[in-house]
Write a structure and sequence with these properties.
Chain lengths: 434, 434
């Protein structure tokens, strides 16, 4: 495989789609090699997949991945090797990198993710310091981690067109902060390279733009290996002008849900799938699994009760939601110990470097698993003894995972297109302030 | 680390050199990034190291590595990722690769190496077939392997300026045949890309040219991290015009040995090393550990007996030896189960992808271990639980291995320079035949 051999939660035979992807390995890798000659992958990313058996689709792509601490430690050398490639590609001459994380200072899970990213970067050969945008961090602040390690957060400063720490002038800045609250002026019009670029932040980014780019990628990929692109791509549409509190736009939303459910029903009939369609309504600029609902009928978005309205109206950083994406729901047929599971695949540069299962014991196969109560099960390397037998056998776990890595990389390619196309959406500081 | 975490045979504290290399990680990786902007690494290679504690030196660099079957299977995904990079760098548009192995058809160890290379290449996304130069292979020939797999060898054909199989026109040709017997005319003036290029074969290559390039690399690296380059670089000189059977040139050889021993003695005194110097005499175009002797005095190369003469006079493919390299011997202080061991590091593109120990229970620390009776112990990943503690502790195994990877990559860089400089040494077919 061109990706780490992982165990998957599914152990049954591969479905047609996975078999087809596996059988087209040389064509697929040749195609990716050519795509990466034309398009630059983001520095890193993670992709949420859902495997319904009849369909293996990406449902979300994160350009500021948390959760590196959840990867299997066996993948660490792969992460380092891929980060070396990313540094060489983006900034071969860089010596010093400033990592800007989220403002959380008490979320130990998140801080362990930051520590994992720092370790990967340091070992790939660059000096790393951590700069915080958190207004509470006014002096270097040491945060202890459960594993005995610690992080030193230091306040970010601006000097002319450069950002820096008091005694550290970075060559390049890596964001692990998704900028949900808007692009802070300290990050605008900066001379240093920002990775990923500012338009990757949720202040600018929209899920609908990502999935529009994915439509194109899935179409081309479908042509390449001869599949209906629908089997890797969920239907979606965007609804804007919503106000969940005043119920403005409610009927538009219901119509969009109805449309997605109808299209899905037709596809289910076409492919002989005996399932009830459902739709996912998500904030178009949302993350952290906030502002998400799963509906089986347009009626369910009409006359939301106060609790539902509150849930949908506000996402991370208290932002109000007026734009949503309505996405065809993809049931997940994967289970770990009888709990519903969905794979999350991690990439650095254009390489799959690991993944884990998001598992929720209290949710069903048609529900959002990115919710309180979820836990993570790192995907492990398949036992080495499986590997040599794999070449001809499509039903081994390593082969199943190859298909996951392919769909994740298609999402990465869509993100590359999306970032190219949305470059002009970041206003220079003068206009932004004016 | 920027290389796989491996266990090493040594478990004592790191020596000064290893500590210095580890402490300079960001500078070293920055330097390598810049070197690889200027110079293209060979497709693959393996490097023999000797760790004397006071010295950690490369003693041989192989551009047609065998032994991929001896790598720990845990490294397989790293190999695949690195091979993806190599394909993308050398031939992004290639779809079909022809692998040309050595002519051995009964050496099961070697055939398993070929199978391992095929698996890496296929999984990195290219169609692979095996073309044999062996005159006995006149039709497709299936060879069974001990693990239940098999290899299909097919006769290489020439068609105009292309080489091919009957029904396979490759875009690129990967040599795992070191061309000791000379460059066959079927490989000359070929339009396809040959990897590595023909001047990498022992028909053209000389160890003395490699170590001349390594002198430059070691010098620059010594400046970078502030070490005497001697601690990573053995003294050497070349002697030509030898005839072991008629004893022609014998005195020249003795003088060269004397010179290397004297220089080494001075360095030992300068560094306060209480060891007896020795020298290694090797065929300048030799491989497979053939034509090697270890001497402690110039007298030992005067008046060789018949057995010694026969051993030195002829190497692989029955070639006569008239040129040798006299190299400062580097004792190995590494042992596995009380047997003398030396690490062999494998690289694909510019990445360390694994390694193993060459172990010999019947040889001493100042002897060549590449000899009948040797066996191999794959280096394993360090247990993941060691990893998080490593950052600050220079005495953990993963940290020791980082130094090994650095020296191996210096040898790879020297090979890149050597191949650039020796490009003109391959004669076009017309001249070669004339």
């Amino acid at each position: 495989m061109s990706v780490p051999h992982l165990t998957t939660a599914l152990t049954g035979p591969l479905h047609d789609l996975e078999r087809k992807i596996l059988g087209s390995l040389p064509e697929i890798e040749h195609w990716f090699r050519n795509q990466w000659q034309e398009h630059t992958p983001p520095f890193y990313g993670s992709v949420d997949l859902r495997n319904a058996g009849f369909k293996l689709a990406q449902v979300d792509m994160n350009l500021f991945p948390g959760g590196f601490n959840n990867l299997n430690p066996d993948f660490h050398p792969l992460c380092v090797q891929a980060a070396m490639m990313a540094l060489e590609g983006f900034c071969p001459d860089a010596r010093r990198l400033l990592l800007i994380p989220e403002n959380h200072t008490r979320n130990l899970f998140y801080l362990q993710n930051v520590a994992a990213i720092v370790r990967i970067l340091r070992q790939s050969g660059i000096m790393v310091r951590i700069g915080s945008l958190n207004p509470d961090i006014t002096a270097p602040t040491r945060l202890d981690l459960p594993d005995g390690g610690c992080l030193l957060l230091e306040p970010v400063q601006r000097q002319g067109r450069r950002i820096r720490l008091a005694d550290f002038d970075p060559c390049v800045v890596l964001l692990n902060n998704d900028l949900s609250a808007g692009i802070p002026s300290i990050l605008r019009d900066v001379d240093q390279m920002l990775l990923p670029p500012l338009q990757a932040g949720w202040a600018v980014r929209r899920k609908t733009r990502h999935f529009a780019a994915f439509d194109q990628v899935a179409h081309d990929f479908g042509d390449l290996i001869g599949i209906d692109p629908w089997v890797i791509n969920p239907y979606f549409s965007g609804v804007s002008g919503l106000d969940f509190q005043t119920r403005e736009g409610e009927q538009c939303l219901a119509d969009a849900v109805s449309d997605i459910l109808n299209k899905t029903r037709l596809k289910y009939a076409e492919h002989g799938i005996d399932e009830q369609p459902f739709a996912i309504v998500k904030a178009d600029a949302g993350t952290y699994g906030m502002g998400v609902m799963s509906v089986k009928s347009p009626d369910e978005v009409i006359g939301l009760n106060r609790k539902q309205r509150n849930k949908m109206a506000v996402v991370k950083e208290g932002l109000e939601v007026s734009e949503v994406i309505v996405q065809e729901g993809v049931p997940t047929f994967e289970q770990i110990n009888a709990a519903v599971a969905e794979p999350v695949i991690y990439m650095i540069d254009r390489f799959v470097v690991g993944g884990f299962y998001r598992v929720h014991t209290g949710r069903g196969p048609d529900e959002n698993l990115n919710a309180p109560g979820m836990h993570f099960v790192p995907l492990a390397f398949a036992t080495p003894s499986n590997t040599p037998d794999c070449d001809g056998r499509p039903d081994c776990q390593a082969n199943r995972f190859y298909a996951y890595g392919v769909v994740a990389r298609l999402a990465l390619l869509a993100a590359a297109l999306e970032l190219e196309e949305s470059e002009d959406l970041v206003q220079p500081l003068a206009e932004a302030v004016a």
